[in-house]
Amino acid sequence: MSGDWNIGHIPYKRAILMPEKTAIIFEDSPVTYRNLNDGINRAAHMLEKKGIKKGDRVAVLMLNCVEFLEVYFACAKIGAILVPLNWRLVGPELEYQLIDSGTRLIVFHDSFLGSIDLIRGRLKVERDKFIFLKSGSVLPPGFKSPACPDWAEDYHDLIQGQPITEPFMEKPVELSDPLAIIYTSGTTGNPKGAVVSHLQTYFKNFQVNVYIDGTQDDIIIAQMPLFHSGGLFIVATPALCSGMTMVMRRGFDPNEFAEDIQRYKGTIVFALTTMWRLILDTGKLDQTEVSSVRCVVGGGERTPPSLFEELAKRGLHMQQGFGQTENSAMMLVPKEDIQRKMGS
């Protein structure tokens, strides 16, 4: 790789330092740091063959998956700017963000084929830059996942045969370069595209890992969506930067979340206040062994003292965090101040 240190160096370095260590357990299937970096490099070479250059915007409309992270880090390596799209948005909202960001290429899951088909004629995305990917979601009986349409190309067909070598950049990717554009709703008007740099994300990695004392021995359980700054910049990037193993699911399921803590002996668990409420409502935590957990992170909204108390009864002492889309992680209440700042 050429250039100064950038976010694309994270999987590259981990693949050298601990190639056989499990980076991600996605839907119960392990992916090593070597395999993750190989996939990222294939994606980077594919994007380059598609004509994507430094500064171009690449959008993703995807559920959580390994390929989301492949595209994210591939963009980081070649200097493209990731535009993660909230999959809860409807056609006109997606259209606005894709046009406003100047997106040149979009990777989307089959689940969102209808939304993209509806707006594709009005986008500034060339015909060969719509990339389709099967999500693997479980469908109700009688339903079949759609096939790749004739106006798109299949992601796995495109990366097959691509080299696993590190991409070489004539224009180095530097820390001051933009990494992503994440849309955030303002109080008035349309959502604003917040530009997040490699440098900001670099320091946030260290900030988060200092807060949670993260190490390569940790197993983090979090089902935050990767399109959100919390899932991408507070969970995934710091976890992989420090060499953790990250347990990941396509989406949030409160029963599965509780089961994963015991199944994988999670040491760090991360869920927003609303998610913790749903987890508690299932009653699963009462049958779950949580002795492996040393750090519990929550927040995202005002949290009532009763929620802290319910978790504490089960041996989970939640440290409330605060963040913004523009800045990702901002602060985390230290363990010794949980009681004093409860209800903050």
Question: How would you describe this structure in keywords?
Answer:
5-stranded parallel beta sheet; alpha/beta; single chain
Protein described:
This protein has 344 residues and is an alpha/beta fold. 35% of the residues lie in helices and 21% in strands. It has an 8-stranded mixed sheet, sandwiched between helices. Strands 4-3-5-6-7 form a 5-stranded parallel sheet. A two-stranded antiparallel sheet has the order 8-9. The N and C termini lie far apart (45 Å). The mean pLDDT is 92.
Q: What's the structural blueprint in terms of helices and strands?
A:
Elements: H1 9-17, E1 22-26, E2 29-32, H2 33-49, E3 57-61, H3 66-78, E4 81-84, H4 91-101, E5 103-109, H5 113-119, E6 130-133, E7 153-154, H6 155-159, E8 178-184, E9 192-197, H7 198-212, E10 219-222, H8 229-241, E11 245-248, H9 254-263, E12 268-270, H10 273-282, E13 295-299, H11 305-313, E14 318-324, E15 328-332
Parallel strand pairs: 1-11, 3-4, 3-5, 5-6, 6-7, 10-11, 10-12, 12-13, 13-14
Antiparallel strand pairs: 1-2, 8-9, 14-15
